[in-house]
Every structure is written in structure tokens, then in C-alpha cells.
Design goal:
The structure is a homodimer. Chain A is mainly alpha-helical. Chain A has one domain: Glycosyltransferase. Chain A is built from 14 helices and 14 strands. In chain A, strands 3-4-5 form a 3-stranded antiparallel β-sheet. In chain A, strand 13 and strand 14 form a beta hairpin. In chain A, helix 4 packs antiparallel against helix 5 and helix 12 runs antiparallel to helix 13. The first copy, chain A, starts with 12 loop residues before the first helix and ends with a helix.
């Protein structure tokens, strides 16, 4: 790495955009190209140890989708490298052949050779399949890709109010909470599908999603977004209702900033930036640095034993949100926070020795699991964030 | 605490039995009596903060069952205190009134006033309900308690091969693993119900359970017990198949020692003690002390982000197993391990300031969550272990 120039301007955006783009194309994408391709069965291995060796061969459909999306997106936005198109097609063919049940729902996982292992209990597999095929269709237009993307999207919309189906453990009616994850992802998903769904459909959809995130889940008295609320958006004093997931809230602020920019709505931009800064202040570990994984808004002990760990996606999503917030507003607090989160993230998560980045640190910022990929970490948050930060700063 | 006498004998059993019994009756049981009783709705609060204040009012049925069992058991074995019988009846009445669905399956949780919240997806609620009503019936014989215990036990036996029912996420047939938890608990459960089921039924049941634990889940080439195996007991190279849960394996060794003692089978005792010592050697954290929560037998990264944490139940169950192993065999390695685990446990888990013990420590043995009770920690492992260690050493 080059030494960072002294900050004469509020933020050395040219330096950061150079650094982030270089990391994307020289470190992250080659790591997944070199290590994740299953040449025998198709699809991707995502359980890669520190050096990139495969330690488990199960295929998690949502990570297959994320990697297809990633290589498609980078082909379109970074460089039309034939090998990136090949990677996207390699994953898409495996998904097309092995990924769905007879109703078109996406399995959570399959064996290496594509036998279904875990049922489609989790609608996020479907969300990332939609994103994958929509992105692939943009670089390799094909009616089959379009059809998979649209069918899956309509399936998500149909299932959205009861997506857990018979896997739901909640007794009906006693505590009907709304969860933040699906509105947040739909917010991003609708934009990804605009070339297929058409702008009218997207424009009809966007205000509803913005309302959910910024009115229903946002709690004005705290200035924070909760993970679960009563159907009317009010606070529910239970483990689920008290739960804060700072990374989730932070990630959603940049989705909202993207929508607000599209709608040319400076008030919405300001509100998203305020929530971003509130969440960082609240979620930052004042003792050991880094952003906590889970918190309880009343300070009660959270259920999640991993609450104090520092996760890669939380930190890289914060960098994207801060870059966008700074680019849109010039707010110097965003610049200062960007530098603080950047320094922590590059120091603790980046693996100088074997490439790619660590995913899981303990509270002190020490490596907890040395894996580069697993059941939940794949080729997605880091490359997307590196691209988003670089592109955002280049456009200033 | 009194200073520990110098170890002239291999183990100062009189000192330990005094210490453990005193801790049980002067610290642990009073804490739950004083803080967990819901005087308004009946039943027990189990979400208690460091000082015993209620931070959440949901009622987790398996923890209700465990607390009823505990006060019933202590009334029978420690002292016939009227207030302990009252505690047991207080919890049993709430369970009887609010705990089951129409098929007699036990809900996972209810609201404070007994409205069902989480469906009976988890058969361990049923296991602890059976134990609770069987134990209560021993001190307060009543056909209603017997009937609940027997009906629930028969329900468990009926459901045992497919207890997750429609909540199971596994695709049928692809990877049909057997899980260790239910055989292990049944091993203990059958003995608790002997006065109701009759010795013939128990004697018919016991060899099957011993076979499962000691032949199917035990892996001779490693000398360890795995959490999940192929139906024929062979190793399955997957996240689930590679998983070790040292606390679980250790706890099972004292259930087996109890059965082996009953059957007067010294070979089985020796095998259980060997597995206990193997598991401690393997699961002990050589860097920071304490026993790991989860490990991967091939050294791959476990899925469980909490893998390196130190949990109360793991350590107190190890103390019970070591006390029993020492009492049965006089093995000096058991004495040495008992002292080592005792010193770690009493130093790190016990809360000298507010009473009761902490449940969750990080790898370094620092308190991770200061709660005394929650969704998974209640009035069970610590009092049971304190009693078992004291009684075991007193009987030498």
C-alpha cells in the first residue's frame, strides 16, 4: 500500500478511489476466480480457508447468486473481461439446473453436485437469485435469464407477507412483528430489475419501500432503525423488538440515498445521512473500536452471543454509506467517520499475507475465524463496497 | 470462602462437598426464589440481569420445566423446605394451565400471562416438562402430575424419529444425519421416570440408549463423541458431521456412569471415563484455559460464531462428570482435572458481588453477558451440578 497523503482537503478522495479500485481488481476478484470455481460440478465453492483452500463443498444458493451478481456487475461496470463473464455464466448454469424446487423457490443449499440439502426456508436465497439473473441479463441478454429473474421476483412479492410459511415458529397473532430485512433488500432489488420490470413498476414500488424503512422501522425518539417493530411501527419491548443491528441500518441508509438521489429529494438524503451518523455514534465500540454486531436498545443482554464481534460486511457497508453521504452532502462528519472506519477496516480485516479479507473478528479486533468464505461470507459485500466507494469518489 | 486445604489426599472431597452444598443452599436457590417468581401470572421469570432484576418477561417453557424439576429435586434430596415445594407447585400450575397445545405438545415460549408465542418446534421443552412433573410427583404424588409426565414421555417417544416435523429444513434423504441431543437426554429421562414407568420399561430402554451414545456417536479412531453422524454411526464430512460439542459429550459421560453403576458394569464405567478425559484434553483451551463451546474435528472453521466462548453449563457438567469418575475409579487424572476445572469455574463464573453465577464468558474468561438468566440459562445446571458434586463426594 502507498502511504496515505496528509488530509489537506476534507477527504483524499482520489487516493481512496485508487486504493479501493486496485484492491478490487488485483486482490479480491482474482481470489474468487482462482479458488471458488468448481470445475467438476459447476457452481462455486464458498467455504474457503485463509489461503483459499476448500474446506467444505456444500453450495449455498444465496452465495451462488451473490457471486453471479458480482462478476456480472463488475463486467458491466469495471471492465468487460471475458473471464468475468465466464465466471457469471458458470454459476448461473449451476443455479439454473439445480437451484429451485418445483414451485420455483430457491433451495437454501445443495451438495457439491447439486442435490437439494436444505429446503427453501429462506427468501433471501430468492432475492439474490433475482439480482444475479437480472445482472447477468444486462451483460448477456437472454430470455431465459429474464424469465428466471422475473418469475423469482414475482414469487418474492407473492410470499413477502408470510415468507417463512410452515417454517415459521411464531404462534399466529400473539406478537405479530414486522422484520426489517425484506423491505431493506426489496429497496435495492427493485432498482436492479428496472430494465426488466420497467420504470413504472419500480416507481410505484419505491415510495412504499422508503416509507417502510424511514417511517415504520425508523424510531424518531432514538434516531435509530430497529430490526423488528409492531405492525404500526411502534416499539415492542421483547428480545426481537429491542434488537438493533447497526450494520443493517447503516447498509439501508445507502440504499435510501441511492433512491433519494434518483428522486432528487434532498430532505430524504439528509434524513438518511442523519440516521447513518446516529447509528455509527451508537454502534461504535468506544473501548476497542469497530462497530458492534448486535445491541439492545434498552441495554439489556442481547440473545445473540456474537453481539460484540466485528464483522466484515458491517464495516464495508459503513464505508459505502459514508462515501455516498460525503459525496452527496460534503458533510465533514462523514469525512471524519470515513477515515476512522477505513483505518479500522483496512488494518483489521485485510489479510496482507494470503489475500482477500477476514470476515469475523472478536471484540478486540483479533481474527476469530480465519476463513475467507463460508456459509454466510462469499464474493459480495467486499467487492461491491470497494467498487461503490471507488466509483462514488471518482464521480465527485 | 474458606481457604482450600493443601491436597494431601488426591482430592479434598470433604472440603469440596461442604463448599458445593453451601453454595447451592445459600447462594443459588435463594437467588431464584427471590427473583424469578411471577406473583401476578404464576410461573417464573428467567431473564434476570446481574442483580436479579427482570429484563424480559417471556416464559420459556423448557426453563419453566427445569426450575420446577430443580425445586422438586432439592426438596426431595436436600431438605423438605415448604418454600421449595411452593416454588415447584407455582411453576407446575402455570405449565399445566398454559404450556401445551391441543395435541399435548409443549410450546417453546409464552407471554408473561401465558399466551402462546413460539410453537412447539423444540422437543426439549417436552423433555424438561416430563422431568418436571415426574420429579414433582415424587414429592407431591398426584394423578394429574403423573398423567402429564407419562403423556409427555409417550409423545416424545412417538415423535423421536421425526421430532422437528414440518419445522425441519432438511431435504428428505440427501444427508440423513442422526443428532446426539435426544438420545443423550432420553438416557437421563428414563431414569427420572422409573417410579412411574416401572423398572421393566426402563431396563428395556436403557441398553438402546447406551448403544446410541457409546457405539453410534462415539468415534473410536478419535476417542471422541460427535454431535451428528450418518445413520450407521460413520463420520459425515460436513459442517454438522464435523461438529464437536465438548460440553455435550462430557455431560453424557456422567449419564452413562449413572447407568453403568446401576448395571454394575465396570467396563462401561472405564469407557465413559476415558471418553471424558479425551474430551477434556481435546476441548481445553491451552492458551486461555476453559473448555471451548464448539470445535470442528478436522480443524475447519466452525459455523458457530460463539465457538470460542466459555459457557457455565459446560464447566459445571464437567465438574459433575469428574467427581463421579473419581468416586467410581479413584483415577488421579480425574482428581487433577477436577481441581483444574474447579479453579477455573469458581474464579471466572461465580459472581461474588451479586450472587449466582455468570453464564457467558469470552475466550479470555471475561464476562461477555452479565445476565444470570435468559432464554437458555435458568435454574438448572448450576444447582444440579452443585448437588451432584456434593452428594458424590459425601458418598465416598
Amino acid at each position: 500500500m502507498q502511504p496515505k497523503p496528509a488530509a489537506i482537503l476534507p477527504l483524499a478522495t482520489a487516493y481512496y478511489s485508487y486504493l479501493y479500485r486496485k484492491e478490487l481488481v488485483s486482490n479480491i476478484l482474482p481470489f474468487w476466480q482462482n479458488h471458488s470455481k468448481d470445475e467438476v460440478n459447476g457452481g462455486f465453492f464458498t467455504c474457503l480457508d485463509r489461503a483459499g483452500n476448500v474446506y467444505d463443498t456444500d453450495k449455498f444458493m444465496w452465495l451462488q447468486g451473490r457471486e453471479v451478481w458480482c462478476f456480472s456487475y463488475m463486467y458491466r461496470h469495471v471492465e468487460q473481461k471475458e473471464e468475468w463473464l465466464d465466471m457469471a455464466l458458470h454459476g448461473a448454469r449451476f443455479m439454473q439446473q439445480h437451484g429451485r424446487d418445483e414451485q420455483g423457490n430457491w433451495y437454501f443449499s445443495t451438495t457439491a453436485d447439486g442435490k437439494p440439502l436444505v429446503q427453501p426456508y429462506n427468501i433471501f436465497s430468492d432475492c439474490f437469485a433475482t439480482m444475479a439473473f437480472a445482472a447477468l441479463d444486462k451483460i448477456n441478454p437472454n430470455d431465459e435469464w429474464k424469465k428466471i429473474a422475473v418469475d423469482t421476483f414475482e414469487n418474492i412479492i407473492r410470499r413477502r407477507n408470510n415468507w417463512k410459511g410452515h417454517y415459521s415458529k411464531a404462534y399466529p397473532g400473539t406478537r405479530p412483528l414486522k422484520n426489517f430485512s425484506l423491505p431493506m433488500i426489496l429497496c435495492n432489488l427493485s432498482l436492479e430489475l428496472e430494465h426488466i420490470l420497467g420504470s413504472d413498476r419500480v416507481n410505484e414500488f419505491v415510495p412504499e419501500v422508503i416509507h417502510e424503512v424511514m417511517e415504520v422501522f425508523y424510531q424518531p425518539e432514538h434516531g435509530l432503525i430497529l430490526e423488528n417493530v409492531n405492525p404500526d411501527g411502534s416499539f415492542n419491548d421483547s428480545f426481537e423488538g429491542r434488537l438493533l443491528n447497526p450494520g443493517h441500518a447503516i447498509e439501508s441508509t445507502w440504499f435510501i440515498m441511492d433512491l433519494a438521489k434518483r428522486m432528487n429529494d434532498p430532505v430524504l438524503i439528509d434524513k438518511a445521512v442523519t440516521i447513518l451518523l446516529n447509528t455509527l455514534e451508537y454502534g461504535w465500540d468506544k473501548e476497542y473500536e469497530g462497530i458492534f454486531y448486535f445491541m439492545d436498545i434498552k441495554g439489556a443482554p442481547p440473545q445473540q452471543l456474537e453481539w460484540d464481534q466485528k464483522l466484515w460486511w458491517v464495516h464495508v457497508e459503513a464505508l459505502v454509506a459514508l462515501a455516498k453521504a460525503y459525496a452527496l452532502t460534503g458533510n465533514e462528519r462523514c469525512a471524519a467517520w470515513f477515515e476512522k472506519v477505513h483505518d479500522y477496516t483496512w488494518k483489521h480485516f485485510r489479510d496482507d499475507e494470503y489475500g482477500e479479507w477476514f470476515g469475523y473478528l472478536n471484540r478486540r479486533g483479533e481474527v476469530l475465524l480465519s476463513l475467507k468464505g463460508g456459509k454466510w461470507k462469499g464474493c459480495f459485500h467486499i467487492p461491491r463496497a470497494l467498487y461503490q466507494v471507488a466509483a462514488t469518489f471518482e464521480a465527485i
